[in-house]
Write a structure and sequence with these properties.
Strand content: 15-25%
Distance between the termini: 96 Å
Radius of gyration: 23 Å
Helix content: 40-55%
Protein name: Secreted protein
Shape: elongated
Strand order of the largest sheet: 2-1-3-8-7-9-10
Order of helices and strands: HEHEEHEEEEEHHEHEHH
Structural class: alpha/beta
Organism: Streptomyces violaceusniger
Amino acid sequence: MTDTLQDLIASAAALIVGLAAGWAVHSASARRKRAREQRFFGLPDGSECVLVTHRDSTSAHWSIPRHDALALLGLASVVENCGAHAEVAPHDTGLQGFGARTEFCVGDPTAHRRLAAHMTNLLPGVTVHPGDDSGTDRGMFTIAGTHYRPEPGAVEHVLLARLTAGEESRPVFLAAGQRPVTHRAAVRHLVRNRARLARKYGAQGSFCLLLKVVNSQAYGPDLVEVVADVTKPATTSAGPRAAAKAAAKDD
């Protein structure tokens, strides 16, 4: 065997070993990434979750608003990547209490019964105003005495939350907004920033973010800003002082 042939064999062997090592490292990294996502979303292999939405009030039949449907598609992709299975359920269907399986609740809290119940129990520091007879201030959020009024097409807000009832329970994710386009924006923010959110809040951590969707009339759900992390005031009962402060601002 000539030196040249030996060199070729040695080079080929080194290349094969390098490719195998690279593939192994990549596979291990992908498995760790997937495991982190499964822990964050509470979706181990083969688990079940539920996507809860409400119907389009402008339709005579049971249908989902377009932006809400697109938000659910984004979540379905996450569920599939985690190796879990999803069920879509209407908001007014009798469902079990949360914690047994991961739940994604998407919609308008003034019309979405399940979402409204979760916010009452899990986000007692948030008030969602139903609006007056003319619809003025419908969907306005009040958090820690500050009002966040919707300006349709210009500035709209949405709450994105991950909440748990305990260390062993599965999380419930809330996307509660002032218009359907904000629900889609919140879900996109969750999916795009899931790794950063998991690092910041932990695999079992709870959070509630107030997001602002800017100029949705022109840009749809694309322009999103984080207004504040409102986890502490949102998960704490408002109390009489905050209520009096909010009432004074209305006068």
